[in-house]
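Could you please consider the sequence and fold appended to this message?
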Amino acid sequence: MCGGLLSFGFRGVRLATLGIRDNWECLRQSACDRTYLRYVWLVFGVMVRSDDSQVVRYTYRLRCSVTARARLLAEWDRCRWVWNRCVAESREAYLACQPCGPAGLDKKLTNWRGEHEWLRAGASVPQQQAIRDFAKSRAKALADIKSQRPTQQRAGMPKFKKKDLAPPSLNYTKRGFRITNGRLHLAGGIELGPIWSRALPAHPSSARVYRDTLGDWYVSFVISVSADRLPETGRAIGIDWGVTETATTTSHMHDLPHSEHGKKAAVELARYQRMMARRRPPKGRPASNRYKYAKRCAAQAYAKVARQRADDARKWAKRVVRDFDRIAVEDFRPKFLTKTTMARKAADAAIAVTKTALIAMGRKHAREVKLVHPAHTTMDCGKCLARTKHRLPLSQRIYSCTACGFVSPRDKNSAHVVLARAGFNPAGVDCGSPDRSPSGQAA
């Protein structure tokens, strides 16, 4: 089907090809096109269209005055009240065996705004969007229950949002905001000043205003843009994830070493954590201002490390996408490493962040990216593709094939196995001649 493009659930290449412009007609005629597009939206955070356009988000930090911040929090309190009422109505409808959809909740919102003057004082757009978000969340939970998904993988039913725990988030449609002279005007008379770190390529269709854990406000615009295609190079690369090196590739010039940003900031983090431990309030008593200060300093240090990891990931992904047309990526899930002795080093490697940045960069520049299942990538030979009869311990860093006698560093061999499983032509591999195999090029 479509040349193996829609190969969901297979053991080998479980992928999604990002350069789907040439294969759109085949996708449209396929019975699985809707499933494929939904998969791309869930995994990559982007909606791909037939006209080579993409729906992406542009996020900017906001400068908020004291008045604007107070109005945003007041607007959030109203939306949170609407959400909680929807949760209560949903539970009552479930006990009464009655439907509870967004249309009925919209009618009740009209009645609620008529009954409460303080609710009517706020804009109706974010309140209606709160109902839409609630309906989507409830529909997803009911769909998981109906499909009998495992309990651990189900999306839970919407719950009540507490004032001190739920992060503020307001959604606005196109009629709920406007941009005039570099200023963002929201429904309800709220004026904000975005920090325009980059220009908007088109007029946004919606906006989300939210506050992070550090108390800073941001706005995220949804925009439809075309893919920024880069010149073709005719080269392919295979990528294997690890702990010693974050990414090992078939090209020696594109390996990503472990940055160890978390290890470098460990002393500062430990200092703030000791401050928090000394100032921790007794159970049942409010926290002091000094404890809140230490907690905020620790959060800022963590945020700095996260930004450094994301910055390194984006720069490396840009370099890989610029030099290669076809990218084979190991679909590695590092979650299981949290229960091993390598948990701290694996978390500092930020494999998931790097993989997400690479996929997003490939989608942005219309490169062909394939996710390869990681099973047996360390046991197969990159030259003859023969499989060893035993698992290789982590202490064994050199791979030796008993069938053909090929010897190569373990991670380099896995990168070539990933490249071979993706089905890319070895002649396009970097650092090798066309008449040699990928393993011979690595050797």
Observations:
- The chain has three domains: 2-6+19-52, 62-197+209-217, 236-260+307-442.
- The longest strand covers residues 53-63.
- The radius of gyration is 25 Å.
